[in-house]
Amino acid sequence: AQSVTQLGSHVSVSEGALVLLRCNYSSSVPPYLFWYVQYPNQGLQLLLKYTTGATLVKGINGFEAEFKKSETSFHLTKPSAHMSDAAEYFCAVSEFGGKLTFGQGTILTVHP
Amino acid sequence: NAGVTQTPKFQVLKTGQSMTLQCAQDMNHNSMYWYRQDPGMGLRLIYYSASEGTTDKGEVPNGYNVSRLNKREFSLRLESAAPSQTSVYFCASSETLQETQYFGPGTRLLVL
Description:
The structure holds two protein chains of two kinds.
Chain A: E1 3-7, E2 10-14, E3 19-26, E4 31-38, E5 44-50, E6 56-58, E7 64-68, E8 73-78, E9 87-95, E10 101-102, E11 106-111
Parallel strand pairs in A: 2-11
Antiparallel strand pairs in A: 1-3, 3-8, 4-5, 4-9, 6-7, 7-8, 9-10, 9-11
Chain B: E1 4-7, E2 10-13, E3 19-25, E4 31-37, E5 43-49, E6 56-57, E7 64-68, E8 74-78, E9 87-94, E10 102-103, E11 107-111
Parallel strand pairs in B: 2-11
Antiparallel strand pairs in B: 1-3, 3-8, 4-5, 4-9, 5-6, 7-8, 9-10, 9-11
């Protein structure tokens, strides 16, 4: 069975600082991995995804994530936070690209 | 393209009442999904439809029924609402089960 753990339900950074949102997964087969972002009162929007190939994946809005099989991790980073990055972020895993299992979510707050 | 649309946006029900949440997509996707989002629990899959004419249970199907009316529309029905079904409901669609899911804006349901 697949599962996802997001470390830290709330992360707070200053504008211009590094953003690091942590995600660890469990999967019995090579996983597909996703990061989604949810802005207040909106649906989820795909930030980036890893299926196969290059382990460093670049997404929208300057975000990227690295698939590390040995650590079963898929952490999301952005070098410099912007106020508009404030949102809730969800990591998700699927096996062979099938049904998604989501993590609990991390709320990112960006301070001026 | 409107993408994925959901109606209503907000609904208040009394315990025991029934209602149907509507979802439609205009992307010619084969697969559609219903999730519920609760604080601290991420999104959990209620039901999904891999293709027109098929539906399958997800992680939390109890108390719900679904209908894949046609390729565009996938409805979720609560026959006898309970306070535990107070949640935000999201519909999503994808070209196939293996492709990226696109989410609607959500329906906020309050059961008193």
